[in-house]
Design a protein that fits this description.
alpha+beta; seven-stranded antiparallel beta sheet; 8 helices
């Protein structure tokens, strides 16, 4: 069988079926398409098992089968996975100077997040140098509705998408301050569109406030947002507009240097009776 492990040591308790499926996917690195007859020899398995593995990969969208030639090639799930990974790496490199500049200007922690369906993934950040500070959360994944980063991005999406991601009216809370109802989330997202930025107070981390501005993206680029987060004692409502103006400016400059990105639009007026900015950390 072809060696595809790159010299890495095998895990102590390997799962053979998973191992075979992953080896099968790696065969597509050097081949544009595979026939069923190509797989048994490459993986040292029988034809019936090869067919079952391919059928499962087709089911999950990792490969597709041409109905005429019966050959297999990479499917949308595999392509999207690769594009999303590359895009996140490019977004980090592109945004890093802006994050450092924003952290220096505000003195607070700055975070970069991308949207992954109904969640936000923290992909980069710069922590404040002050003794009392919040973490950058790089690598963490949280419900998008529970963070200012997430809500800044959710505000750009159609309601149908939100209903597909959050099928139930009840939303599992992260803290006691988290938005708990989908209907309440929709009201808050309308307020985000009107302000042009999202606000959070303790919704994913007690005692932390944050503001976030999103940039929409084209092609393989993910929807992204940048936030400023700080202890509530340092980030109160009196500072919201000032920091929001700085955030909007840096996102605008980031978008101007990257044609694929566009800053989130801001509405001029805000209807009366809307829910005040929600709480959250992030």
């Amino acid at each position: 069988m072809e060696n595809t492990d790159g010299g890495r040591p095998k895990p102590q308790y390997p799962i053979e079926t998973v191992d075979k499926a992953l080896h099968l996917l790696l065969l597509f690195r050097d081949r544009s398409e595979l026939r069923l007859s190509d797989v048994p020899g490459a993986l040292e398995i029988g034809k019936s098992r090869a067919h079952r593995l391919l059928a499962m990969l087709v089911y999950h969208g990792f490969v597709i089968q041409d109905p005429a030639s019966r050959t297999y090639r990479t499917g949308p799930a595999l392509v999207e996975l690769g594009l999303a990974t590359v895009a996140r790496m490019d977004v980090r490199a592109m945004a890093r100077p802006v994050l450092e500049e924003l952290a220096a200007a505000t003195g607070e922690t700055v975070r970069l997040g991308v949207l992954e369906e109904g969640n936000v993934r923290f992909v980069d950040g710069v922590e404040s140098e002050l003794a009392l500070r919040v973490s950058h959360r790089v690598g963490r994944v949280l419900p998008a509705y529970a963070t200012s980063l997430g809500r800044a991005m959710l505000a750009q999406l159609p309601t149908e998408t939100l209903f597909a991601w959050y099928r139930d009216e009840a939303l599992p809370p992260v803290t006691a301050q988290t938005i708990r109802r989908r209907s309440e989330l929709l009201v808050e997202l309308e307020a985000v569109r009107e302000r042009g930025y999202a606000v959070g107070r303790g919704e994913s981390e007690e005692g932390v406030s944050s503001l976030a501005v999103a940039a929409s993206a084209a092609g393989p680029w993910p929807l992204m947002a940048i936030s400023v987060a700080a202890p509530e004692v340092r980030l109160d409502e009196a500072k919201f507009e000032r920091i929001a103006d700085v955030l909007r400016e840096v996102v605008k400059r980031l978008a101007s240097s990257s044609p694929e990105l566009r800053p989130m639009p801001r509405r001029v007026s805000r209807p009366q009776g809307r829910r005040q900015p929600g709480s959250e950390s992030s």
